[in-house]
Amino acid sequence: MSPPSNQAVPPDTCTDPAPRASASRVIEEVVIPPEVVWHDVAGADCLALFDPRNQRYSELNAVGVEIWRQISRNQPLPEIVAHLAQAFAADEVLIKAEVDRFVRRLLDAGLLIEARASPAEFP
After folding, report:
1. Euclidean distance between the first and final Cα of the chain, in Å?
2. Which residue range forms the structural domain that includes residue 31?
3. CA distance 97 to 100
4. SS3 per-residue string spanning the chain
5. Which of 6-15, 19-28, 68-77: highest mean pLDDT?
């Protein structure tokens, strides 16, 4: 067995230009797989994730933590986007694009599972 990888996937570093999760569908709801373990990092505004299926650790920054916590409360992505846009007084279109990129990156990493999708072009 190889040693655990310490690869971070915070939203501000999700730069993969071609995520594997299909960008032609609107993802409305995701869930955290039961195997993924997560906890707060003491003294920091971040969250540590561990996926025992591939022995990988990841860390989310403050914005990623807020998205993750909303997902853990079974909030649909449109509601998460609206919440973040209001909390950060930011343009909802920009927030939607960033949340989508973040979620697709975590889907690709296996840290989230798509619960429901709508066939539609993502703007």
Report:
1. 42
2. 22-115
3. 5
4. CCCCEECCCCHHHCCCCCCCCCCCEEEEEEECCCCCEEEECCCCCCEEEEECCCCEEEEECHHHHHHHHHHHCCCCHHHHHHHHHHHCCCCHHHHHHHHHHHHHHHHHHCCCEEEEEEECCCC
5. 68-77
pLDDT for 94: 96
The answer to whether residue 11 sits within a structural domain is no
Characterise 43 by phi-psi region: left (phi > 0), alpha (psi -120 to 50), beta (else). Answer: left
Q: List, in sequence order, every residue forming a beta bridge with 5; answer none if it has no partner.
A: 56
Domain count, the chain: 1
Q: Residue 72 maps to which CATH number?
A: 3.90.930.60
Residue type for 118, please? S
